Amino acid sequence: MAIALPKTIRNLITNIPLRGVLVVPFVLQTVGAVALVGYLSYRSGQEATADLGQRLVTETNERVTQELKTYLQTPTLINRLNVDAVNQGQIDPQNTPALEAALFNRLQQFEQISAVLFVNPEGKFRVVERFPAINLGIADPPRPDKVLIYQLDIQGKLGKLIRINNGLDIRRDRPWYQRAVKTGKPGWSPIFRYGYYKALTANASQPVYDRTTKRLLGVFSVNIRLDYLSEFLHGLNISRFGRVIITDQSGALVATSIGEQPYKSGAVTGQPGQIKQLKIDESQDDLTRSLGEYLRDRPGSFGSLNQVQYLEFRYKNELQDVKITPFQDQSGLNWQIVTVIPKSHFMAAIQNNTRTTVLLCLLTLGGAIALGLLAANRITSRLTQLNRISRELAAGNLDHRLPTDSTISELNSLAQTFNQMADQLQQSFDRIKTALAESEEKFTIIFRSSPDLIALTTLAEGRCVEANDSFFTVLEYSRESLIGQRLVDLGIWGDPSDRDRFREVLQQNGHVRNLEVHSQTRTGQLKTVLVSAELIEINGETFVLGIGRDISDRAHLEAEHKQAKEALTQSETLNRTIINTLPDLIIRMHRDGTYLDFKPTTAFPIGFPNLRIGENICNVLPPGAAQQRLTAATAALQTGEIQVYEFPLWIEGQHLWQEARVMPLDRDEVLVVIRDLTQRQQTEAALRQSETRFRELAETVREGFFVYETESAHYSYVNPAY
Question: Greater confidence, 68 or 33?
Answer without folding.
Answer: 68
